[in-house]
């Protein structure tokens, strides 16, 4: 089967998400579709899957024009899709999730659950997916949930399978397993579209690479000959620096000290378990880990958004375990939160207002109860210029900015104060390569000026590149304290998955 | 390894559960205090008739209060000490029954009344609550919060009364069903199609139903009594089943409405968990996108469930004129639709659970009516509060444990 998209254009209010995109894929090959967040990859695939209706353009299957008005049409045409956010009902069993929408039935619409189980078992065995049909999905690890999604697609006889950012939620070893599955699919005559922004992965698995930039096809690349840097340049439109430039750290006194910190969820689960570590002035400490292993909660406890159940947090030798977020701010803690739209910014307020959010009560901006907006505006203009925030007017709403520029607003607000510690959670999640480059530079600059930096990120590449010291979190505990220059990605990945590499004998823990 | 973890997790109660268990323990002690201090105040024997006119169960009111009071002390201590684990709910049900019995003994001390008649009345009164709750489940399981059940019951009661008075009982019921469906369709257009907040639309429908039926009742029914006068259906004794001692009288000498509600509970339970429709409905209520991306038309599904719910609630409304009193009165439903929603929560969105919730609320009502005949010294206004008070206690006690369908209340966006 050969699938072609010709001249697909999809407009949303204010943006052209896809601008006459052409693309083709045949069974037996892996096509990687790469591009930055917001380049239009997902939109294009949602058009293909019948979730969006294209404004212009046509879809051809084996040369015949097709119209997809709903996912049902796409499924019938042999197209399957594994979404970035899994489309699984958490409280359903594997088999219920798999057959939903095409249930085998007996009389009166009664479910034939035996038949369904048999179908799931067959497919799972044929493709070596190893699934228990009666397991409840919410109890399954992420990697297994992805296999449930794959079975869903295979059971509907998909010829072309689209994976939308499939590796974002996987550990490095799960990613290798996933690649194995992709190879099995290709061997059994399927075609695979692999959407990603991770160039290494595209180079590893793809037969062809298509690059999207701002809704347009920016070019093709041959994974056998192209380099990461070339593809990155195509994605961004200019040469980019993929590595972080930094001198060796020169750590000084301890700024942040955490001892035996534990946090228990309202439902009784221990999410942060006896965590102890220190961050010194002038060093970047990174915390790696697969999402959901307690990093979010740890950052909340450090920034004062949640109270620790036990343990001590000290900032510059002062016990701040019970201090409010504002107290911590004024003691010199800068916080770049994980979710920029919900915690970092008030998107319904202006850029200026957001820039003074942590300091509106300073003498610099107010006389007692009255805000001096002229001074706030002056400061905002200065920050917009210094931190390269791309906006025509700081009085516009923060929601009008792109993700990268929103993140720069937060970084500007937090780093422009006098601080001794930066707490940055997922500082570059979902933003463009240019902004990533810029934010990394700022973080290193902050370190060099003698600030202690704690980076929490699920992007392994990012923490490996930025950190001077690397901690790994697994199930709420710190399971490793590593030197990122002396350890491989693969070994860190093993720690992230809760095991430890063979070579760990000589490591520091 | 995994199994060990699971066992460990099941042994560890969460903080929330612990708190709840402790509160239940204190509640038992509270019951003990009330029983021993209040219900032991009236001497004399209380007579409960177990069959129509026949066998009499005599209980000495004071002794019963002391004995049950001591049992409550025991239950409370045991609950506070280590809890009842898996049988907690059974213990809770037994304790409630004992409390009701000691209350009844106190109230009837020195007299006698028909226990079987009161329970029969309980089952009869559960009909609109059960049907309303089934309507609620149909909607919420598919992701639409239907606060308008009350309005559907009330409007159904009105049109059912008029329809049956002018033609016959069957036609009246059909009209009531159509009325429920019409209101459900209005709710659907606003909440599913135009994505207006479901709770707000629901309330608007409730007030609309209350306003228009009150207005029409005053302007049309009062001047024309013929429009509002009918002979309601009679109870039917089910052969054999009605001969079972005690139980037969309670459950199987009832009107067709009661049998319909039994059947509806059974049918909905089966279809919700054993059919394709049920699987899709539950998926639409939990994670509609999962269903949508597999080609299920979530919008259509929600509309269909909403309309069925309207029909079921319409029959619940028709119960008032056609199943009982033979006429419509202003605000005759008196908030039973909201109590039905409480029964949904009580029953954890399961038809059988909701049915048992409906029985509890109906019992509170039946007791209230019975006690009204005795001179207990309780102001009648307080007795009138009973069903609502029970609702409040039950919802406050169960809401925490009960988990609503995740997507209930969220409009579905196809894109």
Structure description:
The complex is a heterodimer of chains A (509) and B (415). Chain A has 509 residues and is of the alpha/beta class. Chain A has two domains: 2-236, 3-Layer(aba) Sandwich (Rossmann fold); 254-346 and 417-506, Rossmann fold (3-Layer(aba) Sandwich). Chain A contains 17 helices and 22 strands. A six-stranded mixed beta sheet of chain A has the order 6-7-8-3-9-10, sandwiched between helices. A six-stranded mixed beta sheet of chain A has the order 16-19-20-13-21-22, sandwiched between helices. In chain A, strands 2-1-4-5 form a four-stranded antiparallel beta sheet, covered by helices on one side. In chain A, helix 14 packs parallel to helix 15 (433-448). Chain A is globular. The model of chain A is unreliable at 505-509 (pLDDT under 50). Chain B folds into two domains: 14-110; 117-398, Orthogonal Bundle (ABC transporter involved in vitamin B12 uptake, BtuC), CATH 1.10.3470.10. With 415 residues, chain B is mainly alpha-helical. In chain B, helix 5 (115-141) packs parallel to helix 10. The radius of gyration of chain B is 23 Å and the shape is globular. In chain B, a hairpin with a 6-residue loop joins strand 1 (45-49) and strand 2 (56-60). Chain B has helices at 2-11, 15-37, 61-81, 88-108, 115-141, 149-166, 169-193, 198-221, 247-252, 256-274, 276-286, 288-293, 298-325, 336-346, 351-371, 380-398; strands at residues 45-49, 56-60, 112-114, 236-237, 253-254. The model of chain B is unreliable at 1-12 (pLDDT under 50). The interface between A and B is medium-sized, with 32 and 30 residues.
Short description:
By secondary structure, chain A is α/β, with parallel strands linked by helices.
Task: Please give the order of strands in the largest beta sheet of chain B.
Answer: 2-1-3
Shape of chain A: globular
SS-based class of chain A: alpha/beta
Determine the mean pLDDT of chain B: 87
Give the CA-CA distance, first to last residue of chain B.
Answer: 43 Å
């Amino acid at each position: 089967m050969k699938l072609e998209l010709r001249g697909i254009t999809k407009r949303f209010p204010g943006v052209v998400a896809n601008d006459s995109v052409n693309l083709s894929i045949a069974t037996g090959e892996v096509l990687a579709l790469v591009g930055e967040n917001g380049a239009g990859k997902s939109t294009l695939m949602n058009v293909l899957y019948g979730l969006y209706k294209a404004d212009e353009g046509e879809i051809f299957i084996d040369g015949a024009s097709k119209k997809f008005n709903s996912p049902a049409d796409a499924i019938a045409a042999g197209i399957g899709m594994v979404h970035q956010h899994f489309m699984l009902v958490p409280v359903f069993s594997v088999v219920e999730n798999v057959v939903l929408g095409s249930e085998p039935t007996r009389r009166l619409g009664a479910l034939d659950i035996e038949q369904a189980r048999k179908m799931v078992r067959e497919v799972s065995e044929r493709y070596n997916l190893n699934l228990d049909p009666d397991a409840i999905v919410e109890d399954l690890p992420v990697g297994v949930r992805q296999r449930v999604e794959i079975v869903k697609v295979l059971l509907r006889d998909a010829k072309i399978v689209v994976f939308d950012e499939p590796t974002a939620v996987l550990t490095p070893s799960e990613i290798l397993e996933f690649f194995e599955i992709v190879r099995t699919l290709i061997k059994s005559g399927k075609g695979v579209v692999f959407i990603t922004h991770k160039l290494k992965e595209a180079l590893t698995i793809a037969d062809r690479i298509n690059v999207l930039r701002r809704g347009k096809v920016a070019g093709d690349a041959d994974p056998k000959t192209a380099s990461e840097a070339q593809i990155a340049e195509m994605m961004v439109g200019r040469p980019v620096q993929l590595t972080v430039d930094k001198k060796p750290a020169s750590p000084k006194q301890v700024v942040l000290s955490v001892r035996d910190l534990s946090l228990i969820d309202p439902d009784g689960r221990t999410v942060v378990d006896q965590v102890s570590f220190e961050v010194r002035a002038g060093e970047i400490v990174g915390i790696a880990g697969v999402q959901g292993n307690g990093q979010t909660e740890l950052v909340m406890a450090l920034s004062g958004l949640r109270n620790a159940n036990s343990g001590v947090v000290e900032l510059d030798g002062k016990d701040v375990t019970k201090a409010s977020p504002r107290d911590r701010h004024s003691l010199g803690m800068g916080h770049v939160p994980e979710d920029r739209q919900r915690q970092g910014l008030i998107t319904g307020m202006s850029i200026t207002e957001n820039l003074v959010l942590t300091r509106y009560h300073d003498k610099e901006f107010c006389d007692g109860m009255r805000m001096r907006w002229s001074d706030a505006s002056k400061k905002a203009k200065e920050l917009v210029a210094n931190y390269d925030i791309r906006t025509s007017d700081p009085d516009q709403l923060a929601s009008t900015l792109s993700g990268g520029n929103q993140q720069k607003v937060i970084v500007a607000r937090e780093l422009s104060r006098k601080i001794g510690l930066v707490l940055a959670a997922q500082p570059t999640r979902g933003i463009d390569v240019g902004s990533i480059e810029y934010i990394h530079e700022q973080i290193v600059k902050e370190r060099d000026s003698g600030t202690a930096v704690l980076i929490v990120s699920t992007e392994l590449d990012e923490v490996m590149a930025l950190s001077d010291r690397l901690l790994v979190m697994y199930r709420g505990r710190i399971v490793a304290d590593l030197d990122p220059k002396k350890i491989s990605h693969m070994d860190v990945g093993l720690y992230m998955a809760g095991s430890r590499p063979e070579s760990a004998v000589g490591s520091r823990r | 390894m995994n199994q060990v973890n699971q066992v460990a997790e099941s042994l560890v109660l969460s903080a929330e559960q612990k708190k709840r268990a402790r509160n239940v323990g204190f509640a038992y002690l509270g019951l003990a205090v009330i029983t021993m201090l209040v219900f032991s105040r009236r001497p004399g024997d209380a007579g409960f008739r177990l069959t129509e006119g026949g066998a009499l169960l005599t209980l000495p009111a004071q002794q019963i209060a002391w004995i049950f009071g001591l049992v409550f002390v025991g239950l409370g201590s045991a609950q506070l000490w280590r809890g009842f684990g898996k049988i907690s709910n059974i213990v809770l049900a037994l304790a409630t029954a004992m409390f009701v019995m000691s209350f009844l003994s106190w109230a009837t001390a020195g007299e006698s009344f028909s226990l079987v008649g009161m329970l029969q009345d309980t089952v009869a009164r559960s009909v609109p609550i059960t049907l309303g709750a089934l309507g609620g489940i149909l909607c919420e399981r598919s992701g639409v919060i239907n606060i308008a059940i009350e309005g559907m019951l009330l409007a159904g009661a009105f049109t059912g009364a008029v329809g049956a008075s002018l033609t016959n009982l069957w036609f009246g019921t059909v009209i009531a069903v159509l009325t429920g469906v019409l209101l459900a369709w209005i709710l659907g257009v606003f909440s599913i199609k135009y994505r207006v907040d479901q709770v707000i639309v629901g309330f608007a429908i409730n007030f609309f139903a209350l306003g228009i039926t009150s207005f029409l009742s005053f302007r049309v029914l009062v001047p024309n009594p013929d429009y509002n006068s009918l002979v309601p259906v009679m109870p039917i004794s089910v052969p054999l089943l009605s001969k079972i001692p005690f139980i037969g009288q309670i459950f199987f000498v009832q009107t067709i409405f009661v049998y319909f509600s039994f059947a509806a509970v059974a049918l909905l339970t089966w279809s919700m968990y054993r059919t394709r429709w049920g699987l899709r409905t539950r998926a639409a209520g939990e994670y509609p996108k999962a269903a949508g991306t597999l080609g299920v038309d979530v919008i259509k599904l929600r509309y269909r469930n909403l309309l069925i719910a309207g029909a079921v609630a319409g029959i619940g409304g028709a119960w008032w004129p056609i199943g009982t009193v033979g006429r419509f009165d202003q605000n005759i439903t008196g908030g039973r639709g909201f109590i039905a929603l409480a029964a949904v929560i009580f029953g954890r969105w399961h038809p059988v659970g909701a049915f048992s919730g409906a029985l509890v609320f109906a019992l509170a009502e039946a007791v209230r009516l019975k006690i009204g005949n005795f001179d207990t010294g309780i102001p009648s206004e307080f007795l009138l509060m009973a069903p609502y008070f029970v609702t409040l206690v039950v919802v406050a006690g169960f809401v925490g444990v009960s988990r609503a369908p995740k997507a209930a209340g969220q409009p579905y966006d196809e894109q």
